[in-house]
């Protein structure tokens, strides 16, 4: 029976990796997902980035067991010749299976409900402080509370994008629009588009949008070659302006993070107003409209322009903590140039991430990002289980000699600033009219 099967080589599979011709392999079976790109819940970009490869580990990571039954309609009839599974992939898939049997992917606890109540309380207190008190200091504190509200709603939006935090898909969608668009002014559609690419292409300087912050930041001298961003479909020019800004990026990092939310506002509108296919575009726009009605209205209720500016700056600066947290997990980790390789799924996910070590009572502050390695390996896993599975992940990494890096919040900040400083000094070196010092470059190149 096996002799009647039709086989293709990996080289032949790799040819099917362009728009209009997307083939993938899952457990050695070849699937044509070209037409699925427009309907894929995760968007077309993950399919395009991983096309032409065996994507079993990525599929297992992102899809529940119920998704397997939908694969048959994409089956081409071909099998991958000489298909094999590495030892690390075997152990990784075994862990996914064991966690599934233990119910970890289904048991979400009451964290989302409690956090939603907490967010509602923060909103009520902040609104009360603005409308019913005359104290400047209270108004300043309310601005800070608003920023803290955005952080907590951001964790909810992050969770709801990875797995269903509510009782039904419809309620989960409502939670996404509420916590992302309505409360925070950030399109959940943009976030999912960006975040899916980040997970699939973790720490690829030209494919991972979470590293592409030119002209303000460059975590590696690899950006000095004016690479093309395959996410934004544009060239990241390392011109004189970028060189100047990058040269001082270790000084400007925290000030820029205080106002990084402005970029998220802009990216949300850029996507929704673009010609890209955006699911539920009307809902997304309506949610943003809600935010841009209530937030300016609250600010306008303050007695003078000084306090209004103070309120906005406080809310932006406090939520800047979350933007810093996003950077800590990846900026100081190794980076690479080029598309992701699904055959090295575990190696890429562990090599590009950094955990934040903290006590369990501080888990609420980090929103799951303190176990970033666990989250990248098991993105569907509710964050209430990340601490439980950490020993299993450490054992996996130790057995297969994979990196498992962890640092305290303050140490991670120092590592991030150190990475930015190293790249900044290299950018300054480029401005000197002397031949490039290849030895210095080899010693100091990050990643």
TrEMBL record:
Q: Where is the Cytochrome b5 heme-binding domain?
A: 5-89
- Which positions, given as ranges, span the membrane? 111-131, 137-156, 177-193, 253-273, 285-302
Annotated keywords: Heme, Iron, Lipid metabolism, Membrane, Metal-binding, Oxidoreductase, Transmembrane, Transmembrane helix
Query: Record keywords: Iron included?
Result: yes
Where is it predominantly found? Answer: membrane
Q: Name one GO molecular function term.
A: oxidoreductase activity, acting on paired donors, with oxidation of a pair of donors resulting in the reduction of molecular oxygen to two molecules of water
The compartments listed are: Membrane
Which CDD domains does its entry note?
Answer: Delta6-FADS-like (cd03506)
Name a single GO biological process: lipid metabolic process
Q: Which domain of life is it from?
A: Eukaryota
Pfam families listed in its UniProt record? Cyt-b5, FA_desaturase
Which Gene Ontology terms of cellular component type are present?
A: membrane
**Pathway linked to the protein:** Lipid metabolism
Q: How does it sit in the membrane?
A: Multi-pass membrane protein
Similarity-based family: Belongs to the fatty acid desaturase type 1 family.
What this protein is called in its record is: Cytochrome b5 heme-binding domain-containing protein
Q: What is the lineage of its organism?
A: Eukaryota, Viridiplantae, Streptophyta, Embryophyta, Tracheophyta
